[in-house]
Amino acid sequence: MTFLPSPPLPWTRVCSVSDILPGSGVCALVGGVQVAVFRVAGALYATANRDPFTGANVLSRGLTGSDVQGGALRYTVASPLLKHRFDLATGQSLDDPGVRLPVYATRLEGGDVWIGSPI
């Protein structure tokens, strides 16, 4: 599945970092698009909230974890519906190499979480 490029988005403040429990995610509306924002291992990640396998906007409620492939550690989210896993940094599906989620730029500024354009 391929997603078409999106127009650039202005940086949008979505919440305070304290609003996201460590190891979990929240959903934010950024430029009219649902974005799943995760706080995992001290870092912030943002992906599309839409699960491409089911079409449901549920990924912010998924289970976060980690995976080691080729000696590299990467953090993941598993969809709460069919348990398909995605790399949080790249959006790449770990179950189907032809599927990738859009990922968004994130930044932490003064304790606030900001989401930018897809990267």
UniProtKB/TrEMBL annotation:
Record-annotated Rieske domain positions = 12-115
Q: Name one Pfam family in it.
A: Rieske_2
Q: Which PROSITE patterns match?
A: NIRD, RIESKE
Spans traversing the lipid bilayer: 20-41
| Entry superkingdom | Bacteria
Extract the coiled-coil ranges from the record: none
Alphabetically sorted, this entry's keywords are: 2Fe-2S, Iron, Iron-sulfur, Membrane, Metal-binding, Nitrate assimilation, Oxidoreductase, Transmembrane, Transmembrane helix
Which InterPro entries does the record match to this protein?
Answer: NirD, Rieske-like_NirD, Rieske_2Fe-2S, Rieske_2Fe-2S_sf
Please give the SUPFAM superfamilies that the UniProt record associates with this protein.
ISP domain (SSF50022)
What protein name applies here? Nitrite reductase small subunit NirD
What is the scientific name of the source organism? Deinococcus multiflagellatus
What gene is this protein a product of? nirD
